[in-house]
Amino acid sequence: MNYGMRKTTKYLRLAAPRGFCAGVDRAVKIVEAALDKFGAPVYVRHEIVHNKTVVDELADKGAVFVEELHEVPAGAPVVFSAHGVPRSVVDEANDRKMISVDATCPLVTKVHIEARRHAAHKRHILLIGHAGHPEVEGTMGQVDEDAITLIETASDAHNVTPPEDCDLAFATQTTLSADDTAEIISILQFRFPEITGPRGEDICYATTNRQNAVKAVAEGLDLMLVVGAQNSSNSKRLVEVALRAGASAAALVADKNEVDWQAVDKANSIGVSAGASAPETVVRELIAEIQERYDVELDEKALVEENITFKLPSILTS
Asked: Which positions are catalytic?
């Protein structure tokens, strides 16, 4: 493709780390390993991760995505998504004697364990997260409905009225903005000084690393492009982080076809990052398209190196 006189110089900053995290990589490999072991079709409850490219590629290999277990034929294997599921879903799978494979990210599982531990100690849980997100639904589904309250905003934290004469604890969705969550936590701790927090950070390392990487490149940018899905919480947070860190504009795009190229035309300095469920292949296609349209001066500096991996479930390795 020849853009002739349209070629101008763009200064492109790549945020790193970006894209797939260890939990997403593990979840995708679990579906692939289940297909190898059981053969197609393998059913997956909910999107395995929030990315259409990943879901479509797995569907081409024989994965069938469903929303509820009643859509899964008797005897067929089913994979639970990386976001985690309520205990009722696990119980239903066991009751129906289904071959179930849990692809829940281990860092989400850690939050599930915390929630059950708090409930066992009769603590009421204030869960910081976004209503309707599958990870939040999975975490809230670890305990009785009256044992947990969702906190979405600082206003919620100011106004929540927990049960009286009850110890309190808080937990968080793993893909939130670290800055927003810190504000909410500080409000809860000011209002309820005895509230119990997690033993370690609930927001996952990959979310934090990607937000910090965006902060490191965003200041002074004319435009930040974040590759990710519209239903991806951690990808949306990267757009917000970029704007707060000094980018004049920021946009979430699924791939190169969703880019507003008129906005790119007007920008001299452009940043690129990707949410934790976005494949690097899609990022590279976007970069290649920018290089095709413009002369590009490329700057990529990794803020940290990630070398974390998670094991596959024993049902797939034994």
From this structure: 135
